[in-house]
Known about the structure:
This protein is mainly alpha-helical. The chain has helices at 8-16, 33-39, 44-47, 53-61, 102-108, 120-126, 133-138, 147-159, 162-178, 189-194, 196-207, 212-219, 231-242, 248-252, 260-272; strands at 21-25, 89-93, 114-117, 185-188.
Amino acid sequence: MSTPRSGSTLLMEMIAEQPFVLPVREPLNLRRKYIEDTLGLHKWEEIYSFDNYQHIVKYLQSFRFNLTVDSRFKREKPFSHTWHPVTSRLAYKILHGLEHKADELFKDLNAKTVILIRHPIPVSLSREELPRYNAFLQSDVSEFFSKEQLKFASQSLKSGTQFEKSIISWCFQNKLLLQKSERNLLITYEELVMNREPVIQKLAEYLNLPKPDKMLLRSLKPSGSTDKSSQTNKELLQEVQKGSASFLQLINKWKGKVDMEMVQNAQNILNLFDIDIYTAEEIMPSPKYLISGKN
């Protein structure tokens, strides 16, 4: 479970290369018509309706029987690095809902939840659309936020900058995820990049994955979402693959794209939502959220 533009494609591909794993990519993304048709829900508010939770669980369970899934749903290409002729485990990449149900999914899908979070500023700088902003304000999950938080978000929707609204959207989604992080495995993108080996080892142990070395090798390659990256970023990823560039460059390049006013504005919003995993001006997350215990 993650936010768009947070490294979820790379993490998914690392897991999907493991034996017997069948990837299920973004099964709640209503911007894809075939998902909307199959799921039978048409608005983001419906994804967050408490009454629809069991319906969504049954939909996710249907992927256990791969042939019953709509033929338009993306499948792995035969003989690609994430294709397996025999599978016995599903890896769901969920970016568009159910953040408030991470614990229940543990039971209802016989699953383990991995939460992936990235610093709000680079995520916000790279997002062009915020399809669920209204849903957080108007759906059942609004009850998880204070009146002050909802009022500020409503005002920003009318008069705020795109950057401000993106930070708020990040806070909506990740506040819900952080509330569920104690019983699940929390990984930050920055630590995954900077301290790969201990993070990957922890991930392998948590999910009982047999080949962590293969995940480590995969982590050194650009993800399948690099088509959304700038040419400069693509070149940097290629250099990292060669081992000739610092991993730090992958996580701090956003620093040159913001001014102090933007950073302070982001910090004010983080404070309003009582989120302490990041401070706006720091690149790495708070040490208490690190798997390796190193900053």
